[in-house]
């Protein structure tokens, strides 16, 4: 199954957390077949002194959506993600499932496609780089069209980032 994930970090060594998340995803979820550039964006949904860096990846996996989510939560915990009752906060790493093929899942703890992705330029901008023609299974519009229609006015800037190779065990 082609699974699109967005990775984000806005505290600590952001590149370290992004790189380690990519490596741990490849080890524990599936083979990464596409990666967008890394983008810097202003926080969405809350105030913070620190901007985010974001990247979208496409993973080829054969594990269930529930197992993907379980592994994401373990990866976030390994990378010092602290969860709180506040929905939007600063974080070392955040990994969200955007799409899994054209599945539509609406469970309390798992909603696919991600219910807010069409409202977030920081998601759509890197996603259009690797999946511009992918059709959202609910809205029946391409990612490119969703980005054109997005009303989010926050800045999203493509960065020129060199990857460091982390070496982490899960």
Low-confidence stretches: 165-170
Order of helices and strands: EHEEEHEEEHHE
Task: Spell out the CATH superfamily.
Answer: 7,8-Dihydro-6-hydroxymethylpterin-pyrophosphokinase HPPK
> Which CATH architecture?
2-Layer Sandwich
Q: Portion of residues in helices?
A: 25-40%
* Helix vs. strand class: alpha+beta
Task: State which percent range the strand residues make up.
Answer: 15-25%
Number of strands: 8
Count of helical stretches: 4
Give average pLDDT, whole number.
Answer: 91
Largest sheet: 6 strands, antiparallel
The radius of gyration is 15 Å
Estimate nothing, just give the exact number of structural domains.
Answer: 1
Per the principal axes of the C-alpha atoms, what is the gross shape? Answer: globular
CATH class: Alpha Beta
CATH topology: Alpha-Beta Plaits
Distance between the termini: 22 Å
3D structure, described in words:
- It is a single chain.
- The protein is an alpha+beta fold and 170 residues long.
- It has one domain: 7,8-Dihydro-6-hydroxymethylpterin-pyrophosphokinase HPPK (Alpha-Beta Plaits, 2-Layer Sandwich).
- It has four helices and eight strands.
- Strands 1, 2, 3, 4, 5 and 8 form a six-stranded antiparallel beta sheet that branches.
- The protein is globular, with a radius of gyration of 15 Å.
Features:
single chain, 170 residues, alpha+beta, Alpha-Beta Plaits, 6-stranded antiparallel sheet, two-stranded antiparallel sheet, 8 strands, 28% helix, 23% strand
What secondary-structure arrangement, pairings included, does this model have?
Layout: E1 2-9, H1 14-28, E2 31-35, E3 39-41, E4 52-60, H2 65-78, E5 94-100, E6 105-106, E7 111-112, H3 121-131, H4 143-149, E8 156-158
Antiparallel strand pairs: 1-4, 1-5, 2-4, 3-4, 3-8, 6-7
Helix pairs in contact: 1-2, 3-4
